[in-house]
Specification:
This protein is α+β, with helices and mostly antiparallel strands and 175 residues long. The chain folds into two domains: 12-104, no CATH class; 113-149 and 158-173, no CATH class. 29% of the residues lie in helices and 24% in strands. It contains four helices and ten strands. It has helices at 38-54, 87-104, 127-135, 154-160, and strands at 3-4, 26-31, 56-57, 60-61, 64-69, 73-78, 113-118, 121-126, 145-147, 162-164. The strands form three sheets. It has a four-stranded antiparallel sheet with strand order 1-5-6-2, covered by helices on one side.
Amino acid sequence: MRTFERPKQKQKGMYISFDKLPDESRIWIYQSNKELDDKHLDKASAKLHGFIEQWSAHGSELKASFTIMHNRFVIIGVDESYCQLSGCSIDKSTKLIEELENEMDITFFDRFQVAFRNGDIVQGCSLNEFKKLVKDGELSINKTKVFDNMLSTKKELENSWEKPIKKSWHYQYVK
């Protein structure tokens, strides 16, 4: 699985490598409506890194990170055992993702986008297209894996992010 993070450099603030976040860290998964090219990856990575270096909750720095996976998913993580998030700090991260949407002409907040694995390729489509692919037998409810972006911890990301359609919340729309 290819992941994308900004190259290692002298770290400021509380940015840490995503793999160093504890399993209990809170995460948010934002799925792009299209695959991100190198230009988008570089822009998103730089903007996310800069944001996290300055991110705080009520004046306290947050220990946080991000990763971009499969050129489609932006995942932000925060170690809340270090400092609890506030509603305002969450709002700031949401605003950042909205800025990325506008600057890169992509969509991260369309909850009717479904991502699934087709062999080694991660594809995305609308929920209606997804239902048709399942109905037409092009995707198997038992074998095709979908990405569950409703997870809330890093541990869930590592253990439950990809699952067969039949074992996901997506199944209710295709049965």
